[in-house]
Amino acid sequence: MGLIYADIELINADDLAFVRRHVIREEEVKRIKVKMLVDTGSIYMCINESVQEQLQLAIVEKRKGQLADGRIVEYEVAGPIEVRFKNRRCVVDAMVLPGDNEMLLGSIPLEDMDVMIHPSRQELIVNPEHPYFAQMKLK
């Protein structure tokens, strides 16, 4: 199976909260459409510094993570970010990779949005068992 990318909309979730409180208008919400690598081997979502700056996301903590080559690195974590794909959404924090590194859509947002990889079409799809809404396992 090859690499799978998905068109994802990322939104500053703090801005959405300000809209609900009538502090800012909807058109002031910072959002961006990006192409992300769907990476089921990554638990966390990873954005790059460029996107973090464009969305003006707050740094909420620092975390260590293990790279594919075994190295342990420490990155800043930014958020909250609303992630949208088709008729799905979730809110997550994301590790901030340096520069314009490739961004990763990891298992946490994939599970939260109830989306999956269609192996023969090599694309991200909403779960066909729940096409109209995300359904979570609670046990």
Task: Chart the SSEs and their pairings.
Blueprint: E1 5-12, H1 13-20, E2 31-38, E3 45-48, H2 49-55, E4 58-66, E5 72-85, E6 88-97, E7 104-105, H3 107-113, E8 115-118, E9 123-126
Parallel strand pairs: 2-7, 3-6
Antiparallel strand pairs: 1-2, 1-5, 4-5, 5-6, 8-9
Overview of this structure, please?
With 139 residues, this protein is an alpha+beta fold. It has one domain (5-126): Beta Barrel (Cathepsin D, subunit A, domain 1). The chain contains three helices and nine strands, in the order βαββαββββαββ. The strands form two sheets. Strands 1, 2, 3, 4, 5, 6 and 7 form a seven-stranded mixed β-sheet that branches. It has a two-stranded antiparallel ribbon with strand order 8-9. The mean pLDDT is 95.
Key phrases:
139 residues, alpha+beta, Cathepsin D, subunit A, domain 1, seven-stranded mixed β-sheet, two-stranded antiparallel ribbon, 9 strands, globular
Order of helices and strands: EHEEHEEEEHEE
Number of domains: 1
Q: Which of globular, elongated, flat, extended, rod-shaped describes the shape?
A: globular
User: In angstroms, what separates the terminal alpha carbons?
Assistant: 31 Å
Compute the gyration radius: what is it? 15 Å
| Number of helical stretches of at least 4 residues | 3
Provide the β-strand percentage band: over 45%
